[in-house]
Amino acid sequence: MADAAPETRNFVLVLYNSCVASDETSPASNSGRILALDVGSKTIGRAVSDPLGITAQGLETIRRKNKRTDFEQLARTIAEYDVREIVVGYPLHMSGAAGAQSLKMKQFADELHQRFGLPVHLWDERLTSAQANRVLRETDMSIRRRAQVVDKLAAVLILQSFMEARGSSR
Fold first, then answer.
1. DSSP string, 95-142
2. What angle do CA 75, 77, 83 make, to 5 degrees?
3. Which CATH number characterizes residue 61's domain?
4. What is the mean pLDDT of the chain?
5. Domain for residue 3, yes or no?
6. Nearest-5° Cα angle at 147, 125 to 33
7. What strands lie across the sheet with 56-63, from one edge to the other?
């Protein structure tokens, strides 16, 4: 991929970990928490950073009903944790190519930005769910319980990866 980035509505695509969409081309200097989302068709895994952007904590997974209720729940999370940035898992093929799901996440990120006016970053999420499942298999957790927390853990892994990359770029 080239360093130049194509414009998409209010976003400028910039390379971080394969893809980032944001109003800014450099890491934000404003304080506040970062919210990470692992968005699926049935659930949204969530994780939030500590105020310094060092650690990630998983939050309860949202069971999706419709767009209105999904965004209402996200609005409550943003207000409760004083979120200043959002990171959305960006599903790429193993080759790094974008597919239909990638387009859906770009649209979702655009809508998040329009509704909440926050920087929204698309972050390469390849293998996060597989990594989350591998970690959970190593516990004595039941298969049913693992299924309940895998999206939350995937969001934590997305957020940790984002924060680590950001920290090394400062």
1. TS-B-HHHHHHHHHHHHHHHHH---EEEEE-TTHHHHHHHHHHTSS--
2. 90
3. 3.30.420.140
4. 81
5. no
6. 50
7. 56-63, 43-49, 33-39, 83-90, 120-124
Q: Residue holding tokens 């989350």?
A: 132
Q: Judge whether 6 lies within some domain.
A: no
In this predicted model, what pLDDT tens digit does every residue of 107-140 receive, in sequence order?
999 999 999 999 999 998 877 767 777 787 788 7
How far, in whole angstroms, is CA 56 from its chain's centroid? 12
Query: Is the separation of the CB atoms in 45 and 60 below 8 Å?
Result: no
Question: pTM for the full model?
Answer: 0.78
62 within 8 A of 73, measured Cβ to Cβ: yes
In the structure encoding, which two tokens stand for residue 153, read together? 């853990």
β-strands 83-90, 11-14: how paired?
unpaired
Answer whether residue 2 is part of any domain.
no
- 131 lies in some domain: yes
Domain of 19 in residue numbering reads as 12-169
Helix (H, G, I), strand (E, B) or coil at 36: strand
Please give the single-letter amino acid code of residue 80: E
Helix, strand or coil, per DSSP, at residue 170: coil
- Domain total for the chain? 1
Cβ-contact 35, 87 below 8 angstroms: yes
